[in-house]
Specification:
Order of helices and strands: HHH
Radius of gyration: 28 Å
Shape: elongated
Strand content: under 5%
Length: 150
């Protein structure tokens, strides 16, 4: 029997998330990815053909440029549609990452405080406790400074 069911639930949720993402990708996003891939390969092919034409006033050159512009438009439209379809997942992932960032500092701080408090008497901890807290506060300030700059 599993003692910690929370771990099991987390793994089940991770697996369900992977499966849901795959199904969503295959059913909703794949047609737009296929159109993007086709447009990209067509644009590369047209670019190679355009470079090989010496006379830029020829009708063939203008037709290739028009065809390339149409493929660029198809690529932009499908990229925009795909991004709209994925916007909800981007919001969810941003919320999740911000929640993780929000909980890390208090978790580390309380772990250090509890660890120092388990020793018992603060005079017994002495310089080690002070150095530990100094290192933690310094590292926290540096990481917050780097986060604010970046």
């Amino acid at each position: 029997m599993i003692k910690n069911k929370l771990t099991l639930y987390i793994f089940i949720a991770l697996l369900a998330g992977v499966i849901a993402g795959y199904v969503y990708n295959v059913t909703v996003v794949k047609p737009y990815n296929d159109k993007l891939t086709a447009a990209e390969s067509s644009i590369k092919l047209l670019d190679n053909q355009i470079v090989s034409i010496k006379d830029t006033t020829a009708a063939n050159y203008k037709a290739l440029k028009t065809l390339r512009a149409a493929n660029v438009k198809i690529r932009k439209e499908n990229d925009s549609i795909r991004e709209d379809k994925l916007e909800g997942f981007a919001i969810l992932s941003e919320i999740f990452l911000r929640l993780i960032k929000m909980i890390v500092a208090p978790l580390v701080f309380t772990t250090l405080v509890v660890g120092v408090a388990k020793v018992g008497d603060i005079s017994a901890v002495g310089r080690i406790g002070g150095k530990t807290m100094l290192w933690f506060i310094t590292a926290t300030l540096i990481s917050l400074l780097l986060y604010a700059i970046g």
